[in-house]
Design brief:
Elements lengths: L3 E7 L5 H16 L3 E5 L5 H11 L8 H25 L3 E5 L2 H11 L4 H12 L6 E6 L2 H11 L13 H17 L4 E5 L4 H15 L9
Parallel strand pairs: 1-3, 1-4, 2-3, 4-5
Catalytic activity: dTMP + ATP = dTDP + ADP
Keywords: ATP-binding, Kinase, Nucleotide biosynthesis, Nucleotide-binding, Transferase
EC number: 2.7.4.9
Length: 217
């Protein structure tokens, strides 16, 4: 595998998806087919169908372990059908969420065990981890305030409406992951203006994946 996988992570309201969209817009003309932009859960037909089930606010009866298993199933299909072929083809992959989200949200947030969820996903991914992970850091209360102010009802999913205590546990889970994987994680202050966050993110990606960028860029 000669490609490179960079994942974007962050608590709800950190703005990582908005930042990713801006970064992709700036890089698209230069990188073209060398760059693959994808997301989890999702990234292909089957995984997107699973995503709809997971995030549907009507599915209030969903058991926490069922939720974790569905994420892992979507991830497996995403990996086999989307990520692995792109890595083999030598592409730069930017992925909105990956394994760390499950460990933080289901393992810590749902309190079913970070190690247990990590092991489940080791099976799903055959232990494939990102080359680097960019974490968009924001206080929980700030992130939830952003969601309330800027997302309409159609954009709010089952996880967005969870309690503040749940989101604090998720944040704490991320902090544990970062502490245990310092060589992989890069933290970016997401409380800054989005223009600043975008520029910082672009700089980090160029440092991580310099081989994809020519000297003039």
């Amino acid at each position: 595998m000669v490609g490179k996988l960079i994942t974007f992570e962050g608590s709800d309201g950190a703005g990582k998806t908005s930042v990713m969209n801006e970064v992709v817009r700036d890089f698209q003309q230069q990188l073209g087919d060398q760059m693959l932009v994808t997301r989890e859960p999702g990234g292909n037909k089957i995984s997107e169908q699973i995503r709809r089930i997971i995030l549907d606010r009507a599915n209030t009866e969903m058991d926490y372990r069922t939720e974790a298993l569905l994420y892992a199933a979507a991830r497996r299909q995403h990996l086999v059908e989307t990520i692995l072929p792109a890595l083999t083809a030598g592409k730069l992959i930017l992925c909105d969420r990956y394994v760390d989200s499950s460990v933080a949200y289901q393992g810590a947030g749902r309190q079913i065990g970070m190690q247990e969820v990590a092991k489940m996903n080791e099976f799903a991914t055959e232990k494939l981890l990102p080359d680097r992970t960019i974490y968009f850091d924001i206080p929980v209360e700030v992130g939830l305030k952003r969601i309330a102010q800027h997302r309409d009802a159609n954009q709010i999913d089952r996880l967005d409406v969870e309690t503040t205590a749940f989101h604090r546990r998720v944040h704490q889970g991320y902090m544990k992951l970062i502490a245990a994987n310092r060589d992989r994680f890069i933290r970016i202050d997401a409380t800054q203006p989005i223009e600043t966050v975008v520029e910082n993110t672009k700089k980090v990606i160029r440092q991580i994946a310099g081989e994809f960028f020519n000297e003039e860029s």
